[in-house]
Amino acid sequence: MKKFLYALMAILLAFSFVTSTETAAKSFTDVPDTHAYFGMIDVMSEQGIIKGYGNEEFKPNNTISRAHVAVMLSRALELKPLRPAITFSDVPTTHVYYNEIMALYRAGIVDGTNGKYNPKGSLTRGQLAKILTNAFGLPQQHTSAFKDVPTTHHFNPYVGALAANNITT
Predict the structure, then answer these.
(1) Where are the domains of the chain?
(2) In whole angstroms, what is the distance from residue 72 CA to residue 113 CA?
């Protein structure tokens, strides 16, 4: 999972359209410069993609929620609306990340399930593969490189897209 998170951070940096230099690098007290992902975390902080938890902590060992992925992608990319907004029953307009979640939906990156987005839920690797493939416009490609993702699996073409672009191995 750490390798996949690293790939997510690398993708966000590689495709980031954030150009503002107003945000200074944030020094997170729980991410020393010896941390394996310090460089990525620092650059993403500089670009305003991540902001931490407001108490100078990044919490690098926490799992990432669906809402946080929406926030990171909406900050990193210029998302163009391709479809009208809908209502997710678990994301009211008062939700702290409503705009970011809806931006991903309107850009055709996420769909939700049964009228819900599940913002506090975590993502499976397959779900994240689909989100990243959609977010960065990668062509879907079937793969047989992973024993746990048969060619008939729903997420196989998305995992294949990431593998074809050396984002996951």
Answers:
(1) 1-62, 64-123, 124-169
(2) 21
